[in-house]
Amino acid sequence: MKKFLFVLLASLMLFACEEEKKEALVFTNYNVEKAYEKCNPEKGNCTFVNLNYPVAKGKENVAKKINDSIEAHIIQLVSGFNPDDKPETMEEMVDGFIANYASYREDFPDSDIPWEATVFAEITEENPKLLSIDFNAYTFTGGAHGYGSNTYMNFNPETGKVYTHKDLFTSEFKDFVEKDFRKKEDIPQDKNINSTGMFFENDEFHLPVNIGFRDDKLILTYNPYEIAAYAEGQKTYEYNMEEISEYLKIDFSLTE
What we know:
Elements: H1 2-22, E1 26-35, E2 48-57, H2 60-79, H3 90-107, E3 116-127, E4 130-140, E5 147-155, H4 165-168, H5 172-184, E6 210-214, E7 217-222, E8 235-240, H6 241-244
Parallel strand pairs: 2-3
Antiparallel strand pairs: 1-2, 3-4, 4-5, 6-7, 7-8
């Protein structure tokens, strides 16, 4: 009887482990490419869309939340420049981008300046309490220049929920970053934050929209136009986790 119970217990444990493996959150890269009139981007003078991003599998409900958030973010990155476009799916967004260029060519047949939309998204930090994804995007639809940006999304891999700044950091974190920001940008601590030419709204410092994690570092990114003129480019600040650990609400060092 004891032997039978031991075998039964071992079987149940093995089954539980196998079920846990089935429910593990795993990622594969997915690529979407489409070009105007099947041109070849590598040969130049070609309008195209190229998207590369991670897709979650396992933990069905969690994976769906993460995938839906990633897709919605990429759609916004590519089509957000045009308020008339409101695609609901990745396919609609890609087809719409190419169709808009085709319409542009009909209106201006003498112009052959190609458009471009690229997004490369990669997982930059992954542990049981954090999934951080960096979206490196570039769009060009005519004009003086295109627009490049890095945006981050931070997920709770247990629920699929997107972390907000309030979820991640204490209220003191903003003061810490502002002091360091002023030092690095040569802005006196007792002067207006915009005294040297920054564009902070209401003359008040704010954290960047995009904060992510990479290689055990915290990355803060202000994209072009966010706080300064386009010519200033992207402004990025990095902190070792030890530097900012006291301002974190979640201990991301915990692993299973």
